[in-house]
Amino acid sequence: MTSVNTKPAPTASSEAGTSPHSTSPHGTAPHSTATVSTGTGGTPSPRIIARPRASRLRALDGLRLIAALMVAAYHYGGRDGEVAKAWGSSAKLQFPTLHEWFAYGCLGVHIFFVISGFVICMSGWGRPLRSFFASRASRLLPSYWAAVILVTMVFALPVVAYKAVSPSDALLNLTMMQQPLGVDRVLGVCWTLWAEVRFYALFALCVVMPGANRQGIILFCAGWTMAAAIAQAANEPLLDLVLMPEYAPFFIGGIGLYLIHRDRHDAYAWGIVGVSWLIGQHYAVSSLWHAPNPDFFSYRTSSGIILVVTFGFIAVAAIALGWLNWAHWRWLTVAGALTYPFYLVHEHLGWVAIKAYHQTLNIPSSATLLLTIATMLLLAWLLNRLVEDRIGPRLRSALSRPRR
Q1: 3 has which bridge partners?
Q2: Straight-line distance from the first to the last Cα atom of the chain, in angstroms, rounded to the nearest whole number
Q3: What's the rounded Cα separation, in Å, for the pair 15 and 26?
Q4: Rounded to the nearest 5 degrees, what angle is found at the Cα of 45, between the Cα atoms of 43 and 48?
Q5: At what angle do helices 365-383 and 330-354 cross, to 10 degrees?
Q6: How much is the pTM?
Q7: How confident is the model at residue 223 (pLDDT cuts 50, 70, 90)?
Q8: Distances (CA, A) of 84 to 44, 94, 233, 237
Q9: CB–CB of 277/317 below 8 Å?
């Protein structure tokens, strides 16, 4: 039996902080050449193909954690609602000055969507549909299932003041289909996952299935932008549900930024990013701005909203252009790994932690805020180690295995 060494083809990564050619969640891959073996009769017998070593965009991991902490600040101190029960009073009274800044934290979700557009374009480029689906499912589902089960169990405890959803609704939540089916959500933040899933479906059908290439992706971005504008004008609920006019500019902008990452001189990509930013800031202002009103918990200025949206686009652009390649610390990889499980559990379980620290132990508000974030990060680390690292690879392998 003889073997022939060939140059390995680039492969896209499914992880949020990796370069287009990285395959390891830790930013490196084994360095070796692809090998094709020939057996009797000259029939090729495929061997495992190792991927080339590549660098990781660790700054993207850091930005993801910043966006998650923004959302946490909003949920803990930038709004009223259930969290007021945890504090024992309005968060406005707990943070007389900071609550005005925390109110902008909800825009961390928009930054997540820009990052998602970048990452999904990166991970879908050159990847078959089965592999793309396996990558996304193995990334999203293990921690999500664990978070749904954990929150349901904690809220069912007699000492916890918050009401758990019914067993039937909790089971349905495991499908991620609770929002379109009108069922109570176990996780308050899961509405963003429903937006992500719809984006994945659009990208898979329009880009991954026919085969990702620059021209096809540009047409996808242009077509989605136009279709979303038409959906907004038509005021048709079905079109809004599929095309997501309010969030489409952020996903599309992220895709454009990935094209810039591949070729910074791509004028079409810069056009996609510019148009997406212009439309995105409009939707952000129209949905989050209101006139000053004492009945509202917080007041966000339109210029403040625009600045935060602009920060998200510029930050991802800086990463795409390589300006932040110096931020290559290994702890950023850990931060990126903790972001998703932290995002899932921080809101509802944060209420429980805030009440325990602030009302039961009489810890001051500022210290309670920091302790709660630290507790949720510790829980996220446990989910990453005990759930994601163990179940994720097995799920990906099972879903990637071709049928015989």
Answers
A1: 37
A2: 26
A3: 9
A4: 160
A5: 120
A6: 0.85
A7: very high
A8: 66, 10, 38, 33
A9: no
